[in-house]
């Protein structure tokens, strides 16, 4: 947290930039108010980088367009129905929104858009006091009607209006509380937390797409654990991601197993650490983080109490993959994300056992083949899934996975492992067997692929001999 004076100096520098100064001058000349609002002002106090420039004004969307057209490199009005006009000015993208006073009617999933009349009223309708800050332009006057600066200093999230009113206006703000808590490292004020719990059922009014986007933003923060815990403790997760609170399995005095809920949060933490330290993914990586959070959601449905105080979770990988597909579809995730996350969950147990009996080259090839383009994510998920406090066991598993990755690297260099395929393609198979396109060609191809995985490269001549031998045995 920077001092108020330092923050104002930083805001002054931002206001003097070509983009902001050009906009401020244009609105002032047209006789309209303009203020930099929300995130950029908050982040100036926190010493964080400013990524987006958001402005608010008393001008209507038509008036905003008339003002920005002469000074913009490009402009668009895709958000016009909500009072927002976008533009590119001096190479930077900006959004300018008419003062708002929208609210939900208690039943609709979309807000009724009502334009407001003053900056102060607009700010008091915003989600949290730390986001209800504005800098009037070109006057450079800080506007803080709700005590946002004090809450920034206290690292507290609080709604400008009564939380019941704020969350009633837009229930998605309850999910945003979890996201900002994780993103900023702030505590949610007690009354606001209580309102989140009391109003958790209201989140059902929000579309799956908006819920998905907010959950994704939470997972993409540098440390989402606290935000997820807040969703679970408030009861919101029961409505939007019920598989996570379901991980809090009861433990009786006779049967003991690790806390699956806490384990999953730790796996998520460790996966993020590996994602960053290994540097092979574009970080933050949503697929990786979804897979880490959801990898054990099949355990509640597969838990079995065994004799001797043991607990088993047979096939929880396959059950979990199915549950993940169902939940991600309900949240309207795209098909590629759903396929990647569910595949990682299916495969997350494949490695365990390698440390006890080293795999053959054939098994290593199959591991790579089955992982496909998810191999790096599978490496991370498997490593992150080791949360034992037994240092000897953790080291043994870590060394074993080091060995597996080294073997994959050697085989990849020797055999172009990332593109494992038989030495004969479909055309060559049809020509050699004298068959037309059809199921038999696929069968032949899969047979040769199995040979390739078992034995490595054998060359085209040997592949022809093996194919003919397979064909003869099939015809017999």
Strands, helices and their partners?
Elements: H1 4-15, H2 18-29, E1 34-37, H3 39-46, E2 53-57, H4 61-68, E3 74-76, E4 84-89, E5 92-98, H5 119-124, E6 134-137, E7 141-143, H6 148-154, E8 156-157, H7 163-169, H8 172-184, E9 187-188, H9 190-198, H10 208-219, H11 225-234, H12 236-240, H13 260-278, H14 286-294, H15 299-302, E10 304-305, E11 311-312, H16 316-330, H17 335-347, H18 361-371, H19 375-384, H20 391-415, H21 426-433, H22 439-455, H23 460-475
Parallel strand pairs: 2-5, 8-9
Antiparallel strand pairs: 1-2, 1-6, 3-4, 4-5, 6-7, 10-11
Report on the structure:
There is one protein chain. It is elongated, with a radius of gyration of 28 Å. It contains 23 helices and 11 strands. Strand 10 and strand 11 form a beta hairpin. A 7-stranded mixed sheet has the order 3-4-5-2-1-6-7. A two-stranded parallel ribbon has the order 8-9. Strands 10-11 form a two-stranded antiparallel sheet. The model has no long low-confidence stretch (mean pLDDT 88). It has 476 residues and is α+β, with helices and mostly antiparallel strands.
Structural class: alpha+beta
Instruction: State Rg.
Output: 28 Å
Strand residues, percent? 5-15%
Mean pLDDT: 88
Q: Please work out how many helical segments DSSP would assign.
A: 23
Roughly how much helix do the residues carry, as a percent range?
40-55%
Distance between the termini: 80 Å
- Stretches with pLDDT under 50, minimum 5 residues: none
- For the secondary structure, the number of strands is 11
Largest sheet: 7 strands, mixed
Note the overall shape. elongated
Strand order of the largest sheet: 3-4-5-2-1-6-7
């Amino acid at each position: 947290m920077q001092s108020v004076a330092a923050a104002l100096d930083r805001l002054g520098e931002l206001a003097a930039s070509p983009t902001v100064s050009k906009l401020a001058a244009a609105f002032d000349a047209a006789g309209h108010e303009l203020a930099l609002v929300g995130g950029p002002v908050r982040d100036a106090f926190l010493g964080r980088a400013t990524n987006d420039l958001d402005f608010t004004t008393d001008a209507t969307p038509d008036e905003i367009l008339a003002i920005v057209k002469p000074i913009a490199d490009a402009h668009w009005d895709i958000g016009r129905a909500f009072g927002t006009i976008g533009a590119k000015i001096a190479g930077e993208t900006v959004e300018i929104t008419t003062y708002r006073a929208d609210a939900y009617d208690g039943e609709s999933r979309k807000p009724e858009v009502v334009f407001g009349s003053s900056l102060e009223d607009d700010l008091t309708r915003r989600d949290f006091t730390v986001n209800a800050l504005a800098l009037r332009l070109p006057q450079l006057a800080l506007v803080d009607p709700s005590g946002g600066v004090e809450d920034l200093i206290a690292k507290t999230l609080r709604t400008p209006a009564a939380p019941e009113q704020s969350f009633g206006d837009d229930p998605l703000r309850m999910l945003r509380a979890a996201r900002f808590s994780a993103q900023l490292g702030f505590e949610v004020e007690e009354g606001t937390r209580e309102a989140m719990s009391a109003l958790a059922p209201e989140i059902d009014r929000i579309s799956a797409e908006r819920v998905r986007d907010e959950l994704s933003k939470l997972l993409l923060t540098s440390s989402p654990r606290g935000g997820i815990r807040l969703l679970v403790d408030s009861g919101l997760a029961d409505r939007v991601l019920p598989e996570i609170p379901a991980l809090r399995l009861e433990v009786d005095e006779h049967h003991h197993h690790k806390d699956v809920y806490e384990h999953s949060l730790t796996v998520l933490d460790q996966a993020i650490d590996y994602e960053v330290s290994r540097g092979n993914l574009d970080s933050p990586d949503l697929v990786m983080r979804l897979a880490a959070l959801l990898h054990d959601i099949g355990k509640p449905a597969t838990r079995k109490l065994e004799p001797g105080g043991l607990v088993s979770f047979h096939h929880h990988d396959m059950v979990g993959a199915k549950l993940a597909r169902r939940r991600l579809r309900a949240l309207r995730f795209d098909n590629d994300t759903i396929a990647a996350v569910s595949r990682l969950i299916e495969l997350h147990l494949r490695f365990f056992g390698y440390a006890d009996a080293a795999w053959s080259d054939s098994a290593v090839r199959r591991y790579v083949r089955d992982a496909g383009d998810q191999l790096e994510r599978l490496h991370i998920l498997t490593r992150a899934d080791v949360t034992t406090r037994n240092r000897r066991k953790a080291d043994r598993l870590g060394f074993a996975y080091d060995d597996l990755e080294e073997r994959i690297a050697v085989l990849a260099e020797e055999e172009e492992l990332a593109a494992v395929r038989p030495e004969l393609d479909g055309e060559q198979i049809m020509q050699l067997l004298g068959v037309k396109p059809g199921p038999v060609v696929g069968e032949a191809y899969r047979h040769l692929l199995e040979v390739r995985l078992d034995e490595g490269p054998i060359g085209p001549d040997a592949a022809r001999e093996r194919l003919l031998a397979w064909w003869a045995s099939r015809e017999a």
